[in-house]
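Cross-posted from the bioinformatics board.
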Amino acid sequence: MFAQIGANLVTIKDISKRCGYSTSTVSKALNRSLEIGQKTTAIIQQTAMEMGYLPNSAARSLKTNRSNNLGVLFIDEMQSGLAHEYFSAVINSFKVEAERLGYDITFISHNIGNMQMSYYDHCKYRKCDGVVVACVDFNDPDVVELVQSEIPTITIDHIFNDCTAILSDNLRGTKDLVNHIYASGHRKIAYIHGENTSVTKRRLAGFHKACRALNLTVPNDYIKPARYHDPQSSGLATRELLSLSDPPTCIMYPDDFSYIGGMNEIEKQGLSIPEDISVAGYDGIYLSQVLRPKLCTFRQDTDALGTEAAKNLVDAIVDQKTYIAKQIWIEGQLLVGNSVKKLDSE
Amino acid sequence: MFAQIGANLVTIKDISKRCGYSTSTVSKALNRSLEIGQKTTAIIQQTAMEMGYLPNSAARSLKTNRSNNLGVLFIDEMQSGLAHEYFSAVINSFKVEAERLGYDITFISHNIGNMQMSYYDHCKYRKCDGVVVACVDFNDPDVVELVQSEIPTITIDHIFNDCTAILSDNLRGTKDLVNHIYASGHRKIAYIHGENTSVTKRRLAGFHKACRALNLTVPNDYIKPARYHDPQSSGLATRELLSLSDPPTCIMYPDDFSYIGGMNEIEKQGLSIPEDISVAGYDGIYLSQVLRPKLCTFRQDTDALGTEAAKNLVDAIVDQKTYIAKQIWIEGQLLVGNSVKKLDSE
DNA sequence: CCTCTCTACTATATCGATTTCGCTGATGTT
DNA sequence: AACATCAGCGAAATCGATATAGTAGAGAGG
């Protein structure tokens, strides 16, 4: 073996010397250019392997202006960033697929070295071939600048013009949940909605739409606001709902995690799920399926979201000239669970 | 404004032309070299800003052999990778601190472009200044190669020779838990231990040590194996413990998440926590504190773990010659909660 | 007055790969 | 036989920043 230990010393020049071809030829052969004869290519590849050759990404980047590197913009407001199960699952599958496609991923921030720079500048500095944007304040001018730049960009769960978006179908999911609950005999369905993100807005819209379609009128006090992903807040909303003179028979939560707050409140009042009150969540996180009773919820396909994001981003990079921005809706799946009681009303 | 829209065109050469200094001078001035006069430096900095100059990381890397980039080796065996709350929290705070210190982070994998390479080669290819290794199979020869290489490396929750390790004090944590449970009057304490990772081994050791110190003999059938982080598995173990002729009064779980399985099983048997049976977890994840009753657990300081890892890695990079590998134990905190009943025994 | 030492700056080689253009000899065409 | 075509390869410029070795001029010291 000729592999080097320590700093990598073998360059294309060394290969060139060793096998008698010019550096141009070596470079082309290593990149499998058809310009070079098959035999020559084989010899060069063989030599490169024997010598433990490793390309120098910096040199390559410098010359080609590409990096095989994808940026991930993913901000950790209120500490939820990577700790947010839904997003970390999406990012994880994005990572796996990106790696499969031969790309590394780098997180984009404001600081690098001892200087501050905009997200866009950071991406240019690192020569990111493309960027995925998730879980950020989509109104941040810095984010807008990046999205509108010439760098291929994909957003998750948010729509910008001229930018491909990968979207979890929240409208559809909420409708499916409502329909299932309705079909189980419930007519008094309350909805706790999270803070005003584009995602939770769509869920709320889905709820109203489904109710209209079912000819179900929902009293105003069956709709309660709460903070997204905050059990405490949804616990309070639950209490209010339960204390209504005509309380609902089923409560829908903004997300599975919020449901924990409701669960605590319901148990505290001595009620049991689903005998006394039915509940449903949203997201289908792992937790929701290990709780008893199993939560009725809508599973977002985080794998597909991440994978599609990576695939489309790479497509956008490769076919930069012809690629047309699109919106990709990822279907989810209703998880029936045991938290919605079958009523024999009507 | 002279800032460029589109591809970054402003180079050091352009600045040189515009303000009449050589590129050498410009480069030095931008790097705040003392070799250059104050006035000149000011002029150059000003011009650079006006022209919207952005350094080219590839060119810089190529010449200096540094990248301001940290590698993160973090494998997603059994899909738990970033979805594992403990590790994702650690990585998140690592990311935040690394960014504060001016470093980007890039995930290290086996694939890049259309070639496969070892972790070590990948780091060299990307010119990572340092690497943090977490949540991997520490026996993997590929991991060992990386850790033993000349690249500054830090491990989390695992000790290698000549490599700084950041460690959550699992021994201490488990002891604290046992002591608290004992102080609450419990003498029949069962322990469910997770699969054989170095972390869970230490927890088990801590359990035995604490019991010995308290002169408490633990029957063999009070120690049950289960899969780490798997509620189903710990649910089974719980059932076995509850069906013993002389069942324990308190059950300790390998981690908070596993506890969910126990919780379900306990409730299924019509028992309630902590009246009929006391329980304790480990990790102090957010979930554990929103469940009712609040779980008695030991909170691992994930913030400190990630932050210390980043700080020490950067130290190791900067003082490469003089840096000495060390082991840093991060203290956690006992969260008493309400899941351990106070007994007035003895 | 002459040398010497700094300060402040410049010219140039260099990092390692890619890429354009050009060359050579072999083959095909008429 | 004369010419065009083309496969296969090489020379050299280039990407943008940094680092080394030097130069010009100002001031110091004897």
